[in-house]
Amino acid sequence: MPDDNKKTPLLDELEKGPWPSFVKEIKSAAESEPMAADLLGQLELSYQEKISHWKHGGIVGVMGYGGGVIGRYSDVPEKFPNVAHFHTMRVNMPSGWFYTSEVLRKICDIWERHGSGLFNFHGSTGDIILLGTRTDQLEPTFQELTHLGFDLGGSGSVMRSPSACVGQARCEWACYDTMDLCNEITHTYQDELHRPPFPYKFKFKFSGCPNDCVASIARADLSIIGTWKDDIQQDNAAIAEYAAAGVDIQKDVCDHCPTKCMEWDGKKLKIQNRECVRCMHCINVLPKALRPGKEKGAVVLIGAKAPILQGALLSSVLIPFVPADELLETLKELVSRIWDFWGEYGNNRERVGELIQRVGMATFLDAIGLDPVPEMISAPRDNPYIFFKKEDAEAAGDGNGAAAQR
Amino acid sequence: MPAATETIAEAMYQMVAEYMGKKNLKATDLTKAMIAKFGEAECTKEDCKHAIRLLIDSGRCVYSYFGGSYITLPHKEGAAPE
After folding, report:
1. Domain B5-72, CATH
2. What is the structure's pLDDT at A248?
3. Tens digit of pLDDT for each residue in A355-393?
4. Using CA atoms, how far apart are residues A207 and A226, in angstroms rounded to an integer?
5. At A91, which helix (H) or strand (E)?
6. Which of A106, A156, A208, A255 is most buried by a 10 A CB count?
């Protein structure tokens, strides 16, 4: 435990309560790792003075890579010499975050040899985060990680490590193989992952169904969310069993449907599939009775981001439906056009969603060669943001220009 | 006749050196400048990508991060302790 000079009364507050505490874990590490002990000391100082004592390093990294290492230096190295350098390394996680316990132990061993031994499993993009090492330990760590079959992830103005839900490996709702697509995209765009070519970061996230367990609609520049085109598969006998077991179909299912597309007469559930917006609520409540349709694929959305420079954005639909077996080729074609336009017209530190806001979706679609369709919306039942030209509407047979005025 | 990767890399290096300390240059800035200098027929985006890789792998230039990612000449890390 810390001596009197290393008491941490403010941090100790974060150990109270029933939830896990990072302070407790760092204290545990500090018993054998001086870096962790100094980390606690510097953090306590920051809490006392209400100011960060970290400085950002600009050029540390491994040879040839422009990402994967986030430089951190202490601005009070005389007080805490063991965290004078405290760089973070991002390690590209496996698709779906599947590990063997053996490989996890090996990663821990590597990090105890070369760094603080502290991790985040996982960072918000999904990478394994190795917290705290010195500049001279970056290359040796990288070498050992690559021998174990791991690579660094993305940081800076790169394609960030693509992430995917567990998909068909564990989940029966997955409408396409998220892990395979994530792996393919990761390997296809290694250059964009490691050598910063963009105005700012670019994130892919792959969700197998509209439950969107990786929150791609809120955080990915390009969200690929599984969906289906035909009707929800329905087992009426199983629905009757749910009702007999006490599930209130009207209250718990129909009343929560955002489009009120289903009716329950006490015996049979009737679904107006044309009105369904794939919210997944009914399927989540009645998993043995309802399933996604058979014609599976994904919707591709663009432009989400968390708030950093500007406010948060949610994705907008870019392609309403791509069959599962056409996803990879469609994405490759689409991404090259998006990156070309963004690289040409994007401002420094401007995410692609912000560029679209600035130039307008119609201009963006025109630039990447996609025809506007009514399904291109920012939220179900929202108005399309496409304004059709009057001559286009007339050419399509709408002689009074009604579509143009929509 | 397409410009050689080494020629593009040298032109990029000169540009990075000229702007060092005045303006941070991104990969896209260098790419646009090289296409303007050599012409689209003689210098493609792919050529520029190879040239940047040559500069980085040789150690003549490094990636740096100041809010975004830039390409600069190697220099002492300002934030590093003495």
Report:
1. 1.10.10
2. 96
3. 999 999 889 999 999 988 878 876 666 666 666 677 776
4. 6
5. strand A88-91
6. A208
CB A345 within 8 A of CB A358: no
| ipTM value | 0.92
**Architecture field, domain A163-228+297-370:** 2-Layer Sandwich (3.30)
Which residues lie closer than 8 Å to A290 by C-beta, 6 or more apart? A232, A233, A234, A235, A239, A282, A283
Identical fold for domains A163-228+297-370 and A233-291, yes or no, is: no
How far away is chain A from the Cα of B9, in angstroms, using its nearest Cα?
15
State the count of interchain CB pairs (< 8 A) between A and B: 90
Q: State the average pLDDT for chain A.
A: 92
- Min Cα distance B14 → chain A (Å) is 19
Which chain B residues are within 8 Å of A84, Cβ to Cβ? 81
The CATH architecture one would assign to domain A233-291 is 2-Layer Sandwich (3.30)
Task: Using the structure block, give the residue that is written with the tokens 């810390």.
Answer: A2
Query: Nearest chain A Cα to B61, which residue?
Result: A64
Interface residue ranges in chain A relative to chain B, Cβ cutoff 8 Å: 55-61, 63-67, 70-71, 73-74, 77, 84-85, 135, 155-158, 191, 195-200, 343-344, 346, 348-349
What pTM, to 2 d.p., does this model score?
0.91
For residue range A49-69, list pLDDT tens digits in order: 999 999 998 788 999 999 999
Domain ranges of chain A: 4-147, 163-228+297-370, 233-291
Q: In chain B, what residues touch A71 (CB-CB under 8 Å)?
A: 65, 77, 79
CATH architecture classification, A4-147? 2-Layer Sandwich (3.30)
Taking the C-alpha atoms of residue A23 and residue A234, their distance in angstroms, rounded to an integer, is: 49
**Three-state secondary structure string covering A314-336:** CCEEEEEEEEHHHHHHHHHHHHH
Whether the per-residue pLDDT at A222 is higher than 90: the answer is: yes
- Parse chain B into domains and list their residue ranges: 5-72
Q: What are phi and psi of B22, to 5 degrees?
A: -110, -45
**pLDDT tens profile A281-316:** 999 999 999 999 999 999 999 999 988 777 888 999
User: In the block, which residue shows the tokens 């998993």?
Assistant: A287
Dihedral (CA of A176, A99, A130, A12) sign: positive
Q: Tens digits of per-residue pLDDT, B14-62?
A: 999 999 989 999 999 999 999 999 999 999 999 999 999 999 999 999 9
Tell me the chain B residues in contact with residue A83 when contact means C-beta distances shorter than 8 Å. Answer: none
Phi, psi of A76 (to 5 degrees): -130, 55
Chain A residues close to B46, C-beta within 8 Å:
none
